[in-house]
Amino acid sequence: MTLKASFTDEVKAELANVQPARPCCQEAELTAMAEALVGASDGAPFTLRIPRNAVARKVVHLAKVAGGRVETVRKGATEKRPSYRLRLTLPSGRGSKDGCCARAILRGTFLARGVLGNPADAYHLEMAVPAGATTLVSSGAARAGIPLKRTTRRGRTVYYLKGAEPISRMLGLMGANRAVMRFENDRILRDMRSQANRRANSETANMDKRLRAALQQRDAIRRLKARDNRLQSLPPALREVAELRLAHPRAGLRELAQVAQVSKSAVANRLRRLVRLANRNGLID
Ligand SMILES: [Zn+2]
Known about the structure:
Layout: H1 7-16, H2 23-38, E1 46-50, H3 53-66, E2 69-76, E3 83-89, H4 99-113, E4 114-116, E5 124-130, H5 134-144, E6 149-153, E7 156-162, H6 164-174, H7 177-227, H8 236-247, H9 253-260, H10 264-280
Antiparallel strand pairs: 1-3, 2-3, 4-5, 5-7, 6-7
Helix pairs in contact: 2-3, 2-4, 4-5, 6-7, 7-8, 7-10, 8-10, 9-10
């Protein structure tokens, strides 16, 4: 029992049920799957180990319709996740040079080796194939117009794709239509989430700025007051705003303006004067 299927599992389950109708595509997809699993063939039978029932069934089906041969299917019982061992002889053809087969090659390669990040977290797709199995994948990707990049890792050629746009396009080309819908939905959610984060961050920054200014004003007024206990030397308008700021150290300008029954800009102006005054008297550092 799985808790929550990964996006990779979801896409593979969908692709395993996409059956290519043309014989050329059946050959191409089967060959791509086999080569991605064990490397390029020289016509000899392959032994494939496939961790997914639906994919194993697809190999058997494609071999039957495309003129290949599956000799034995054995379910491995020892592993946690059952795997299927089968011995496959490929059909003689490797598909056509048409776009239909390019899509079938991508689909077969992904079914065999694809890993896809959950679109809510990462836009990353990769397929690590044996170093000898790159001819088919590279030509398929080129013909389908998918800008797969490649690197090597532990003796394998890793094809990868980053970015929402190309990944969504590749899913669509392979025929994973439900996955494209989920991908696009998650993509919208993710965009909204990051916009909300950006907004929250800038609100916090503004709040910090306002609060810092308010506390600075309070400090300035405290220093003025330390020198002239009742702020008697200040004009009444300044004195009133000074007392308000001391009484409400965190209040915004608008709140102070409401209490003082003057305009916001008048309050701002008086607070500026108080800070300047404290500075001029060398009372603020
Ligand atoms: Zn085809």
